[in-house]
Amino acid sequence: MRMDALLRAGxxxxxxxxxxxxxxxxxxxxxxxxxxxxxxxxxxxxxxSRETVRKSLKELENEGYIYSRPGKGYFVCKPEYGRFTLDLxxxxxxxxxxxxxxxxxxxxxxxxxxxxxxxxxxxxxxxHKGGRPSACEMRYLPYSQGQPTIEADIDYxxxxxxxxxxxxxxxxxxxxxxSAESAAGKAAQxxxxxxxxxLLVLRRYLVSLSGERLGYAVKYILPSSGPLTATTxxxxx
Amino acid sequence: MRMDALLRAGxxxxxxxxxxxxxxxxxxxxxxxxxxxxxxxxxxxxxxSRETVRKSLKELENEGYIYSRPGKGYFVCKPEYGRFTLDLxxxxxxxxxxxxxxxxxxxxxxxxxxxxxxxxxxxxxxxHKGGRPSACEMRYLPYSQGQPTIEADIDYxxxxxxxxxxxxxxxxxxxxxxSAESAAGKAAQxxxxxxxxxLLVLRRYLVSLSGERLGYAVKYILPSSGPLTATTxxxxx
DNA sequence: TAGTGGTCTAGACCACCGT
DNA sequence: CGGTGGTCTAGACCACTAC
Lengths: 237, 237
Description:
8 helices; two-stranded antiparallel ribbon
């Protein structure tokens, strides 16, 4: 008996099987470390071909619920509650404060691995919330004197988002460090807050495949702009 | 001609194809938004069956490089540079400071959705670095008076890690908020730092499938313990 | 209509694991 | 050895897209 009844809903067989198994995992019928029914067992139970069953299992594997061991079987994963996903894509509301080609201060030169004479492009953006500054960000990129005009660099300099569109994609990745610091200097100035105010500080590094740092960005966030939020990756659906 | 030469290395055909395509994407031969060769085209080029080609493509899709549109083809993704992965699994070095069943203060009761009389288990852990406190964490769980002994609850209370092993896995997920705050009260006391020191604050919530908050943890981190780090998910391999 | 991806099948051979 | 998963094939039918 093919389970065509379930297919009438338009849901492909392999998703039906995957959903069935996922349900049992979430309900606790299968616990972390447990062995799942073998492909053969499932093949019989759902009257599906082996490849279809394997497709279901592959789906669950991709979603992080199970893993397989050749010669042994499929097992339920231990959830990774220590892995969080942080989404920083909402930052499009930042207003440009200024752009300049400058001689970088020591910190920036060091981060980008430049000698002191080399100049960089500095881009400062400020985010407002309720009429008051809530965050500011300084981005730095090596200034290649010569061919590229500042304008081209600026386009590129929206940091990786644009760069990705015009050069080889996936040739970079981004690293970030998160810390808390007291407001001081430029940051306090841009944010119009007293020195000593605790700030959330995000430092991002644009890193090439070969490990070079091609860009550096520091963002200072006032407590008033609310916390960052992150979630454990699983269970979106 | 089957590309058996490439298979001799022990690498399955579908990974060879996937690697080939991935290389071209990373090298910039295929840019974000570009269409990839069709399944049929690849089928011919690699002398493989359609399912094998599809397996390659599925692999790249899982890794986040491409996506497909029925009737149109496969396309190169725009890298998601705004999505970061945060790894918090190194926190096993924290020493237990104390455990107690207490009447929660207002903040905790509100977070957990408890009325004032309900008691909670409080677990305080302190992390040391170079002989000095570098972080402290307070965890709170509703105290179910009755059957469960404190000991059982404590076992459960290592928060989700242990809970996952004994109840239904994947029945919870964790949410987190990250902020910067000035040291004050208990936190300053546990960390032996002056009030006003900027602290990185992580608040984690154990959330059930139905949206209930089953646990709450606040961790205060001194600047001295170094920043949190996160990376853009791709390109691990 | 032709081309594309999405699903599914029934078989095949292999490497791995346990007894 | 028998059972398990891993790879691969050659076909089939479908839905979607574009012309």
